[in-house]
Amino acid sequence: MRPVHGWRPATIVGTARETASANSIRLAVADWAGHVAGQHIDVRLTADDGYQATRSFSLSSAPGEAPQITVERLDDGEVSPYLVDIATDGDALEVRGPVGGYFVWQPGDDAPLLLVAGGSGIAPMRAIWRAARPHGTPVRLVYSARTADRVIFADELRSPDGPETTVHLTRERAAGFEYGRLRADQLSALLSSGGVREPRLLVYVCGPTAFVEDAARELTDAGLDADLLRTERFGVGGPK
Ligand SMILES: Cc1cc2nc3c(=O)[nH]c(=O)nc-3n(C[C@H](O)[C@H](O)[C@H](O)COP(=O)(O)OP(=O)(O)OC[C@H]3O[C@@H](n4cnc5c(N)ncnc54)[C@H](O)[C@@H]3O)c2cc1C
């Protein structure tokens, strides 16, 4: 894939409400040469007075699909409330990327996958499970969200095409969900299958920085080889 540098014009060509606080946005990007599952783009917005704001967003669509981002609103944030509540078809913005060569999945990475997501950290995981599925790669997802109505991609996760999924809710109890933050012993158990340690498991962890750091530490404390762990920190927010 040819790397493309610099800012390019993009247009919003579709939006989909995922939850009350999250929106998926499909983009038409000039000169888009495709992406690898797990990569992100930088998005630059320019106000009428020339003020610009730039933020990074993971691509939630699989390679071969139109570029899509999935944004969760931070109520006191600058950019995410616009992208979740105001952005609409035809809006113009600028895009740089796709970016990233480490937190990615590509055909040939044929080990079973464990995806550990917190909040909007589910976005690149969707790209990964959709990319890996046609290759027959086993994918297990553990997803931490605050409440049941904040579970992004809920329909896809319930469908037979979704990964094997466990959702942990940190702020409420609800039927069909685990309750509470992911514990070290639960993460440790995920590294084994039928009581036998899975030697080749590739583990991806993505979400707010504190979530990623806690999960990564607990996984490596449980014996996961750091070479088999790929992390992406979003820096903000989170399913506390
Ligand atoms: C690689 C990468 C991929 C990402 N992918 C996604 C994604 O797929 N989906 C997604 O929803 N997000 C993603 N993010 C996060 C995203 O880039 C934004 O950070 C997020 O949307 C918040 O932006 P904002 O402008 O709304 O908030 P901001 O205005 O940037 O504020 C963020 C938080 O910081 C606080 N804050 C702001 N300024 C200050 C200050 N001066 N002092 C103290 N606190 C302050 C705010 O109160 C708020 O809580 C990703 C981040 C990275 C790095």
UniProtKB/TrEMBL annotation:
<dbReference type="Pfam" id="PF00175">
    <property type="entry name" value="NAD_binding_1"/>
</dbReference>
<dbReference type="InterPro" id="IPR050415">
    <property type="entry name" value="MRET"/>
</dbReference>
<keyword id="KW-0001">2Fe-2S</keyword>
<keyword id="KW-0479">Metal-binding</keyword>
<dbReference type="InterPro" id="IPR001433">
    <property type="entry name" value="OxRdtase_FAD/NAD-bd"/>
</dbReference>
<dbReference type="InterPro" id="IPR008333">
    <property type="entry name" value="Cbr1-like_FAD-bd_dom"/>
</dbReference>
<keyword id="KW-0408">Iron</keyword>
<dbReference type="Pfam" id="PF00970">
    <property type="entry name" value="FAD_binding_6"/>
</dbReference>
<dbReference type="InterPro" id="IPR017927">
    <property type="entry name" value="FAD-bd_FR_type"/>
</dbReference>
<dbReference type="InterPro" id="IPR039261">
    <property type="entry name" value="FNR_nucleotide-bd"/>
</dbReference>
<keyword id="KW-0411">Iron-sulfur</keyword>
<dbReference type="InterPro" id="IPR001709">
    <property type="entry name" value="Flavoprot_Pyr_Nucl_cyt_Rdtase"/>
</dbReference>
<protein>
    <submittedName>
        <fullName>FAD-binding oxidoreductase</fullName>
    </submittedName>
</protein>
<feature type="domain" description="FAD-binding FR-type">
    <location>
        <begin position="5"/>
        <end position="105"/>
    </location>
</feature>
<dbReference type="InterPro" id="IPR017938">
    <property type="entry name" value="Riboflavin_synthase-like_b-brl"/>
</dbReference>
